[in-house]
Amino acid sequence: MRRIRSGTPTRRRLTGTALLAVALVAGTGVPAHATTPDRSPERPAYLRADLPVQRRVADLLSRMTLAEKIGQMTQAERGSVDADRGQITRLQLGSLLSGGGSTPTPNTPEAWADMVDAYQSYALATRLHIPLLYGVDSVHGHNNLVGATVFPHNIGLGATRDPALVREVEHVTATETRATGPQWVFAPCVCVTRDMRWGRSYESFGETPQLVEQMETAIDGFQGNGGRDLARPDRVLATVKHYAGDGDTRFGTSTIGTIDRGVTMTDWAHFRDVDLAPYVTAVRRHDVGSIMPSFSSVQWTDRPGSAPLKMSAHKELLTDVLKQKIGFDGFLISDWEAIHELPGDYATQVRTSVNAGMDMFMEPYSAPDFEATLTAEVVAGRVPMSRIDDAVRRILRTKFELGLFERPYTDRRHLAEVGSAAHRAVARRAVAQSQVLLKNTGGALPLKPTQRIYVAGVNADDLGNQAGGWTVSWQGQSGNTAFPGTTILQGIRQSARQVTYSADASAPTTGADVGVVVVGETPYAEFLGDVGVEGHTLNLSAADRANIEKVCGAIRTCVVLDVAGRPQIVTDELVRMDAFVMSWLPGSEGAGVADVLFGRRQFTGKLPVSWPRSEAQEPINVGDRHYDPLFPYGYGLTTRR
């Protein structure tokens, strides 16, 4: 069913004169709602909050020039306009974004709000005062912001099998994001990950469409009740990504990594049931407001002569299937310079993608070229005006639903809640529920506070490794200085009286009752994390294998924790362990791992993906004809308190 939109009479709004006045004080903290709503019939219809959204959109669209319309379809990276913010006005930009690691200085909640408001003032200085939409990658918390609550990545949330918890996690994320300025998040990823060699595996909830659809309560956590809640200061516009099939690409088909941005080689039935299904649910059940098409391509195996076609150019899937058949009435946002990977010159790339159905274009450093190129294509008749109007209508409707015309500047009422104890408590609970107990011989777990515990492994005391990619910077970084939080080691020390730590297991183990070895990965994101790129592999590192051998060979009871974004190969090491726990990438609250280790919470997590015996066994997924994983999809032991 399509959404029925109506006006929201209770929303406050600014008149055109007031908008300009407030624009002069952007970034000062002056409340943007400090005027009396004006519903006078003399005002332009688009500025009247008492009118239905559809009428306001139609009125505003009728007043816009081609240049103003194309401006709304353009999104630039903040770094490209920061030195000359007047570009926002001159280009009449509809949107800005912060890419991974693109932050204000200092990187504080207040500085974020001031930065977004300052950009907004330049958008409001345009002829029609159309407010700016600001997007950010809040993929596991407001993760670009130092001090924000950093949650487990989606693969860990998938292990919880708890849709209500996922909704709560994303509501916290929405609250912290909107309070600091951005009104739009490029999350959640609803791909179905079918190959653990993919560098984005941890961004997926799991390997089955059923699990992914179950976890799409994340959309409700971000948006609330669709268009009716978007204007609230604790909600943001969600983006499901990456439409469609990016978790199902074939290894070796990528031109930039090994699997990311590769080719989904599939028949229609498989594509419909596995790759497309989560987007149907996102649109029809959760009313998602925006969708980001993938970098990947699709090649049909049941259509003779089919060749790989990039999703950014796929009119059949973007328009015929998504917009018309499924009924998506939000807007499509391209991924980072995604159209640059299409064949032909830049004009051909722009024309092809617009005509395929793309509505807004993430052109981080080429916004002026994009606008000039699209203008020329429209004037030449190669892009119909109806397609431009459709795209802009979708974008404007979302801005009205977000309440940006009434309240263009940041509502800071929740600013003090960023990284609060209450929010971190939600993250700690999510960490505990995400832990998957894969082996527990002789009741090794739960641990007792009175036991003498020997902890080894770099990942036991490294927040950066614990959080993974997309944390403060795009690729993330190792170490404990980038953001506040609690490491797994600190959580263990809060729980036990006698703890010895040795990163390389070189300290004497004499007298220890239990050894805890923390193994795992270092941070990566996207194609740079693909197996085969920059030395990445599913195998444990030599240092991790050595630590397991040393500690498990010397201490009677040995527990191994794996801090990683995907399963690692532990087939040969498993026999040495008394207990084995998959901890995923828990984020800022490592104490949640200690909560289950010491029995304050039960182990309840279940594998959201199949665990391979060897790297060569990938891809392996439940339902395969010859299914023989080390641990099957859905596996997970429990413990009693």
UniProtKB/TrEMBL annotation:
EC number annotated for this UniProt entry: 3.2.1.21
InterPro entries registered for this protein in UniProt: Cellulose_Degrad_GH3, GH, Glyco_hydro_3_AS, Glyco_hydro_3_C, Glyco_hydro_3_C_sf, Glyco_hydro_3_N, Glyco_hydro_3_N_sf, TAT_signal
Extent of the signal sequence: 1-34
Gene Ontology terms for molecular function: hydrolase activity
Catalytic activity as recorded in UniProt: Hydrolysis of terminal, non-reducing beta-D-glucosyl residues with release of beta-D-glucose
UniProt-listed Pfam families: Glyco_hydro_3, Glyco_hydro_3_C
Enzyme class, UniProt record, top EC level: hydrolase
UniProt-listed Gene3D superfamilies: Glycoside hydrolase family 3 C-terminal domain (3.40.50.1700), Glycoside hydrolase, family 3, N-terminal domain (3.20.20.300)
Residues of the Glycoside hydrolase family 3 C-terminal domain: 436-638
Domain Glycoside hydrolase family 3 N-terminal: 65-397
Keywords on record: Glycosidase, Hydrolase, Signal
Protein family (similarity comment): Belongs to the glycosyl hydrolase 3 family.
PANTHER family (UniProt xref): LYSOSOMAL BETA GLUCOSIDASE, PERIPLASMIC BETA-GLUCOSIDASE-RELATED
Name of the protein in question: beta-glucosidase
Organism annotation: Micromonospora zhanjiangensis
